[in-house]
């Protein structure tokens, strides 16, 4: 007979969603719990407002996710408005505290990215600038959250073949300061300050057959081979999952790319899943559009789940009402590309993810 004392019972109940419009018993098993059956996580980008202690938002993020990722609060420009100013950690501290209260693990996003910089950082260009501004930023943030963050997107979007550099690197202030070495330096600084964290390179536009995506895959693999070969502490690769129904998915190409990452000894995460619909999507019924978005996500996630290196899947928001895609341009204002709709009801994408997680036959060893 299984006997539970009061303490174990409270501990066991702590992870259950708060009672909402649906009773806890009627609620389906969360995606985080389903992903955990094969040793993986499911998570979402969150904002500090999403996870403030009230409302439908936090209930959904609590019920569905085992991992949260701050959507913008940890970016350099969110912490430091103007170059040289003191960082403001209030929003990030609030997310860290909310995650601790609800037993969520946190991915950190992101330490080095060319967007969302402090005012004045666009002009940084020398090694001295790196030492004065960038190195202390990386050390401070990773050090402050060394016990709170289990995975970091250390460098985000380093590759851009269209920028014309022979090594396919994106030309950014970081590249101007240290050249290619900025990536290795960023990983070393993060590893020194947060030795237990798993450190990821994170990049986008890697799933499809188009030539421009092939060049991006080449750039990513070359950079990772170089880092791993030099003994830099890089542990994983994050594939932003900003999918697009207008592009051509080729399963063989994607499997080969995953295999190359595995051969480098890296773990793999799908870090920012959502689906951009075709511009003519408005002509179809919402139900048909949602089915199409679900099928697009299903193609990528089902292949990725065949890799034991896959640690987890994170969507970039849960509900379309909060999707960053909708704010990007007027023709995306009603984009349907996330696992919950505007009213926080599950969409076909949620069903697809749930059944793929539940049926995964290739566990990630934890
Ligand atoms: C987006 C956030 O969702 C927005 O709130 C913010 O205004 C801009 O950045 N790739 C990334 C993410 O790596 O950090 C971006 O997040 C989306 C694209």
Strand neighbour order, sheet with most strands: 1-2-3-4-5-6-8-9
Listed once per kind, the bound small molecules are:
(3S,4R)-3-hydroxy-2-oxopiperidin-4-yl beta-D-xylopyranoside
Structural class from helices and strands?
Answer: alpha/beta
Mean pLDDT: 92
Shape: globular
Kindly give the count of domains. Answer: 1
The H-and-E topology, N to C, reads as HHEHEHHEHEHHEHEEHEHEH
The CATH architecture classification is: Alpha-Beta Barrel
Structure annotation, total helices: 12
Q: What do you see in this structure?
A:
Residues 1-24 have low confidence and may be disordered. This protein is an alpha/beta fold and 366 residues long. Helices cover 39% and strands 15% of the residues. Helix 10 runs parallel beside helix 11 (286-304). The two termini are 29 Å apart. The chain has helices spanning 6-14, 31-36, 55-64, 76-79, 90-102, 127-144, 173-178, 181-193, 211-229, 251-263, 286-304, 348-358, and strands at 41-46, 67-70, 105-112, 149-156, 198-203, 236-239, 242-244, 267-276, 310-315. Helix 10 (251-263) links the parallel strand 7 (242-244) and strand 8. It has a single domain, classed as TIM Barrel. An 8-stranded parallel beta barrel has the order 1-2-3-4-5-6-8-9, surrounded by 5 helices. The structure holds (3S,4R)-3-hydroxy-2-oxopiperidin-4-yl beta-D-xylopyranoside. (3S,4R)-3-hydroxy-2-oxopiperidin-4-yl beta-D-xylopyranoside is lined by residues 71-72, 156, 240, 272, 324.
